[in-house]
Every structure is written in structure tokens, then in C-alpha cells.
Amino acid sequence: MDESTIFEKVKKIIVDQLRVDENLVTMDSNIQEDLGADSLDAVELIMALEEEFGIDVQDEEAENFKTVGDVVRYIEKRL
Q1: What is the pLDDT of residue 28?
Q2: Can you give the residue ranges of every domain in the chain?
Q3: Rounded distance, CA 1 to CA 64, Å?
Q4: Cβ proximity of 24 and 35 under 8 Å
Q5: Distance CA 77, CA 79 (A)
Q6: Whole-number Å distance between alpha carbons of 32 and 29
Q7: Residues sharing a CB contact under 8 Å with residue 48, sequence separation 6 or more, in sequence order
Q8: Closest by Cα among 1, 9, 5 to 50
Q9: 38 in catalytic set
Q10: Are the beta carbons of 4 and 68 closer than 8 angstroms?
């Protein structure tokens, strides 16, 4: 699966979970500052990503996710 396909899936999950406009979701979007995710949102987001991509994300790895691009690159490496 290539980066753009992963990004589109991640973007859809973010839009659904955080209820933000899809135009706000870019590779450079900061998940907390730009998209307004709080700690509960972050946990729910990780769970949705794990289910969608069939991966397990460790808490210490998830703490490094600052931007949407961080998430996409992490998933790309895991698949």
C-alpha cells in the first residue's frame, strides 16, 4: 500500500473521529494543534487506525505522532 492510499484512509478516519473538515487534514496538520484532538480523541484515533490497518500501535510509539504525516509514515513502515 502506497503513501497516498494510506493518507486517504487515515484522512477519512480523522474526519470521522474528530469531525473536522477534510480540507484541514494534510500531511503537515498537527493532530492536536491544527485538528483539535485531545488525549481521549488520540486514543480513539489510534484504536480506529489499528482496526483499519490490522496493526498494533504501542503507547510509546503513539506519543511520537505529532502530524498526520507521522501517522502515515508509521503505518507505511508497519505494512
Answers
A1: 98
A2: 3-78
A3: 22
A4: yes
A5: 6
A6: 9
A7: 13, 16, 17
A8: 9
A9: yes
A10: no
What CATH number was assigned to the domain covering residues 3-78?
A: 1.10.1200.10
Which residue has cell 485531545?
Answer: 38
pTM: 0.95
From the list 2, 21, 28, 38, the catalytic residue is 38
Summarised one tens digit per residue, pLDDT across range 17-60 is 999 999 999 999 999 999 999 999 999 999 999 999 999 999 99
Q: How far apart are CA 5 and CA 62, in angstroms?
A: 21
AA identity, residue 24: L
Cell 484504536 belongs to residue:
47
Please tell me the predicted confidence (pLDDT) of residue 72: 98
Residues in the chain: 79
